[in-house]
Design goal:
By secondary structure, this protein is mostly helical. The protein has four helices and two strands, in the order ββαααα.
Length: about 100
């Protein structure tokens, strides 16, 4: 029998219905990509909150650098300028409510 993982069931209507449903391993593993699984395996031995914070900071820094590199590429290609970025800070795109 495949291993089962608890999944929160927010659609339980009646008192006697379980608040947790179970998914088989094949369903749960199909929701996780190979890349995600490799990352989970890599952090399986995190032993402290401090280590977790450091890993989260590393991941945040990685994606921040990717975003900065993408903006630099757009600027180098002439598709974006510092003036355009500055103009975004002055935009007011709020929906007016009456």
């Amino acid at each position: 029998m495949p291993k089962q993982y608890p999944i929160k069931d927010n659609n339980a209507q009646q008192v006697n219905e379980p608040s947790v449903a179970y998914a088989t391993q094949s369903v749960a593993s199909s929701m996780i990509s190979a890349c995600q699984m490799q990352i989970l395996d890599s952090i399986a031995n995190v032993n402290s909150d401090q280590e977790l914070i450091e890993i989260r900071n590393l991941i945040a820094e990685y994606f921040s650098n990717k975003a900065l590199n993408a903006v630099d590429e757009l600027c180098d290609a002439g598709k974006l300028s510092t003036q355009k970025i500055e103009s975004w800070s002055k935009e007011h795109l709020r929906t007016p409510y009456k």
